[in-house]
Fold:
Amino acid sequence: MTPRPVVQPDDLDRVDLASPVLHAENNLDEVWRHLRANDPVHWHRPVDGRPGFWVITRHADVHKVYQDKGHFTTAGGNALATLLTGGDSASGTMLAVTDGPRHQQIRNVMTRGLNPRTLEAVRHSLQQTVDRLLKNALDMGECDAAHDVAANVPLGAICDLLEIPESDRHHLLGLTSHAWSTDHADEPPQEAWVAKSEILLYFSRLAKERRGAEYDDMVTLLANCRIKGEPLSATELMANCYGLMIGGDETGRHAITGTILALTENPDQWRALKNGDVDIKTATEEALRWTVPSLHGGRTATGDVELGGKLIKAGDVASVWIYSANRDEEVFDEPDRFLLGRTPNNHFTFAYGMHYCLGHYLGRMEVHAVLDGLRRLVGNVEQIGEEKWIYSSILHGMHSMPVRMTA
Structure:
């Protein structure tokens, strides 16, 4: 297959790291390697009227930002797409862009919906779904791993958790796939806003239907919970259902597609998986490190702070690049190799600290189920057409990857 063009460090002052087109159409590995070695806390110039921002690429520095609640906040946004364009409208209501006591209060409620009984039920259903999808792919012979397999795995898991009716699920899949990324460079931004609005309205209606009902799913839990005697506001309810849907679907989908691509590109690792030479749990962590479904996280400095010998001033936007940190030579041996037996594996795929991804249970279960299904059911998988990458500066994955699967 045709590799994407490699952006060289000499081009760094001419590229826009907040551009979805840059990430979809290019390979930035050399840029990340150069920044880690020479300018790990890098000031990115303003572009097209947007403010400049800090680009943080080393694992150790990313760790510092994630754990430093005193100098960095997600209030206002947690990604460049919103931080550079006026802030996130869900700030202070959605868990991912809320800090302080309210963050912990909402997180405590949502954690109750991820209890062992619920997760075990989701896990059982998830493995059945994966097995069915892989058997269908084998029957077809040739399929699109992104569309025919990966898209349907996390969709089922998150919709089971939220108890979304079967009749609504594929409509929601179409909306989530457009909310934070596009399939084409020239897709109008209005489509993303329409998709986000429709998801929010959908959960507003669903939550109203479930007020007063007995809790057995996350939407009902959120619709009927009380924090200090008060229910969640309508905005908090919609925003956090939206956050669960987007995070639970997009992350797993791109991790699964990326894992299948990596296995086609590394036949030695495919053999290790098939032969039982690697533990599935260990392999899952390497798949998550390698695929990096979220390219970066964003923060705003709340006070002046020194990092990597640079002064980040109060109000500055700081981006921590998970993709780069997950390939840091100081932390990972042979970081540019996909090694299913890698251990330890201290990746940042689910972030770190108070904003450690609440859905990490689901993400791990989804990738684990796919690896297990591939080991048991699929004799060989090969890529038979060009993969097509999504256009996003936040998410990292493919919307199409033609493969041939044989038993």
In short: The chain has one domain: 9-406.
